[in-house]
Amino acid sequence: MSTKIQFKRGTTAQVNAVTPDIGEPLYDITAAQLRMGDGASVGGNKVAMEGVKISRTFMVNGFHFPSALLEWAPIISGAYLAASLAAKKFWIPLNFLKIGDVIKSYKLVGDATLAVALTLDCKLVKINKAHPITTTDITNGAIVQIVAGGAFSAAADNDDETVSTDKQYVLEVLGTTGIGDSIKVMGAELLVDRMT
Which domains, ranges and CATH numbers included, belong to the chain? Predict the structure, then answer.
């Protein structure tokens, strides 16, 4: 006769309501996810399991500039747009993505100095293999008209976008500054579901 071993288990809400002891396993029956206790984390820590998606936040701060003269310029803290420039673009390539990743949302992070009038827009764009190559804006993937000075962390809760073969993704940033205005973009934070 074999001995049956069962872990503590419950729905996601039930598992999220307990703090398991160090080394204590829990099983989330809603998400089919094993969690392990550390004695401090409520709900325990998710254990990487084959075929299970884990949400991760990726920090992105690589930039592609069309021209550093009279455009966005590279600086140590990211990308910089000086005063009195209109409708200038740069791109943040999302080269870390893997096929099967699901892009859930993103935030654009930076700082703006407002003297007259500035605007900053950003959108999530899919680049499609075609002849010629085409682009598609991701539904609800736009941050429109940051117009205030100070630090910003503007978010877009785009429709879930599953990364597939023959596709590339970028954040396209468009800025305009008036006399005395400037914009610095540090980068972006992307929330991605990734299969383990």
Answer: 8-47 (2.10.10.30), 55-195 (2.60.120)
